[in-house]
Design goal:
about 0% strand; mainly alpha; 10 helices
């Protein structure tokens, strides 16, 4: 009952922290999508395959780096506040997006690309009309993973003064108030589920009917 009592008395405060959390998430995640996809596309272009494979190994290994370590390093070099937190979240989110974009593009059937060349398509046309549409499920998997990771890691970012729902969790831990911990953790979980559901719908809309039939 203490949880419901706390929520009813602090709805305004929780709303502000939720908006701060979404702000940190949205900016860093959007930047990571743009930069991560550009890197993933760049390293898979013809003539860069060997460097692309190396980049794939590095990004794969980078996924094992703990999020708290990334935030701690950014804190050391950039200090506290929302900007360093967004930069740290951007760095952590870019890894799965780059990895999945490169993996998806490397996984395209070479015969399909040769057939597109035979039809007279340029490299740019092959990228946008053949490679990316066929790699959409893998690319979106990375984008969805990055969203979940980003939302969860944003709670830790509050430790460097970025605000967000993590602030309630840390204060709750420091004062032994479980209702505050729940008031911070439950909205983050709900956001993660809702955003993943929305992205699942978007992914389904962007996936071609042919690929859907193959996966069935």
């Amino acid at each position: 009952m203490a949880f419901f009592s706390y929520v009813s008395q602090n709805l305004g405060y929780m709303g502000i922290k939720a908006l701060e959390h979404l702000y940190l998430f949205a900016i860093s995640w959007a930047l990571a999508i743009v930069v991560g996809m550009l890197i993933g596309i760049y390293v898979t272009r013809p003539g860069r395959e060997r460097g692309g494979r190396v980049a794939l190994i590095i990004t794969g290994m980078a996924q094992a780096v703990p999020s708290i370590a990334v935030i701690a390093l950014v804190f050391i070099f950039m200090g506290i506040g929302a900007a360093p937190a967004i930069f740290a979240l951007f760095l952590y989110s870019i890894v799965p997006i780059t990895f999945n974009t490169a993996s998806g593009l490397f996984g395209i059937d070479k015969d399909m690309i040769e057939a597109a060349k035979g039809m007279g398509m340029t490299n740019r046309m092959i990228l946008w009309r053949v490679e990316i549409p066929n790699a959409i499920p893998t690319i979106f998997s990375g984008i969805r993973n990055a969203a979940i990771i980003n939302l969860g890691t944003a709670t830790i970012a509050s430790a460097i003064g970025a605000g967000g729902l993590g602030e309630l969790i840390f204060i709750g831990l420091g004062t032994f108030k479980y209702e505050m911990i729940l008031a911070g953790a439950i909205p983050v979980s709900i956001m993660a589920v809702l955003i993943d559901l929305i992205l699942g719908v978007v992914q389904n809309k962007m996936t071609s009917e042919g690929l859907k039939l193959q996966s069935e």
